[in-house]
Amino acid sequence: MPTARTARPAGSRRTSQSGGPAAKRTAAPRPRALTSRATILLAVFVVLALAYTYPIRIYLQQESQIAQLERAQAEQRAAIAATAKDLEKWRDPEYVRIQARKDLYYVRPGEAPLLVIDDPAGAARDADQKAPAAVPDRWYDTLWHSVQAANAEPSN
Q1: Can you tell me the distance from the alpha carbon of 71 to that of 61, in angstroms, rounded to the nearest whole number?
Q2: CB contact set of 113 (below 8 Å; sequence gap of 6+)
Q3: What sections of the protein cross the membrane (predicted)?
Q4: Inter-residue contact 24 to 12 (CB < 8 Å)
Q5: pLDDT above 70: percentage of residues in the chain
Q6: What does DSSP assign to residue 10?
Q7: How far apart are CA 2 and CA 8, in angstroms?
Q8: What interhelical angle do 36-90 and 93-104 show, nearest 10?
């Protein structure tokens, strides 16, 4: 009965380093970089990423709109508060009297109104002003004087 060592074909046997025939090398299968499972898993991840991109973009856009509207609302609340404070001042009759005297130059009965205009530049300009220049004649006066002057010339 032949043994397992003797049953090998001659070309696939190992030989000793003592100068026998060279051993035939067989190529071992190389593992592929991406297996089919890894490729499918990668494709699923890409599809999921693309599917979630649009809703996330919409969500972020809506968050930015909400923040902008909240800022505008806070500004409006501040403007309303300032207007309410101003309205409270106008409800005071003494404040209304002060504003009428200051802005509209109102006076109480029996008071003499006096308005002081502080314009040093205008006063200096008025002090240096000479007599007003003579107003030029109107055009029809000039025309009539020229007709009279032509009529007064002696004829030769």
Answers
A1: 16
A2: 105, 107
A3: 34-54
A4: yes
A5: 79
A6: G
A7: 10
A8: 80
Task: Report yes or no: 42 and 34 within 8 Å, Cβ to Cβ.
Answer: yes
Q: How far apart are the first and last CA of the chain?
A: 174
For the CA atoms of 119, 125, 127, 129, the dihedral, rounded to the nearest 10 degrees, stands at -150
Contacts of 82 (CB under 8 A, 6+ apart): none
DSSP string, 11-41: GGS---TTT-PPPPP-PPPPPPSS-HHHHHH
Predicted TM-score (pTM) of the model is 0.41
On whether the CB atoms of residues 25 and 16 are closer than 8 A, the answer is no
**What are the tokens at 109?**
């009965």
Retrieve residue 12's tokens. Answer: 């696939």
CA distance 25 to 146: 134
pLDDT in tens, 68-127: 999 999 999 999 999 999 999 999 999 999 999 899 888 888 988 887 788 878 777 777
